[in-house]
């Protein structure tokens, strides 16, 4: 049985040895495996105006991707290479009908890609809280400084907080989903998270 390969963007950090490193939480790898999918971290490449995203495009084309995850960690604007790479990943995915999920920062990036501004939020770092839909409420973790100001056109809000912040959204006509919590950081993975990831990536 062929398992779908899911490409995952990574955070960029500078080590104590002054190395620029791509990093990915092993818990996210484990969560993707729990969903019955094959995780594949996305590399970043040095850019010039002449070959901007050329190597990233070649990397994508060399893999038979079943989906893309824009991971969390760090704020948008902290690293130009990551920001530009994730924008290109969204552009490429829309053109080639590749499903996308954004986690925390990744959902913010989806919002910005579709023209939505970010806003600073308080009390959303390292705190669990409830999010609400029209049918239920769910307790989730929270590790973000920013949220999207409004819902993009052709997206539907799935969950909000009591103070009105959008916590999850889904495209009405594309396989694009975003959540502001980190499914991978739960001690026990939530089956609702597993189900939505399988649904977006159409993994039965």
Count the beta strands.
13
CATH class: Alpha Beta
| Residue share in helix | 25-40%
The low-confidence runs, each spanning 5 or more residues with pLDDT under 50, are: none
Helix vs. strand class: alpha/beta
Distance between the termini: 12 Å
Total number of domains: 1
The largest sheet is: 7 strands, mixed
| N-to-C series of helices and strands | EEEHEHEHEHEEEEEEEH
CATH-derived topology: Rossmann fold
How would you name the CATH homologous superfamily?
Class I glutamine amidotransferase (GATase) domain
Q: Averaged pLDDT, please? A: 93
SS element count, helices: 5
Question: Rg from C-alpha positions?
Answer: 16 Å
Q: What is the molecular shape? A: globular
CATH architecture: 3-Layer(aba) Sandwich
- SS strand fraction: 25-35%
Across the major sheet, the strand order is 4-1-5-6-13-12-11
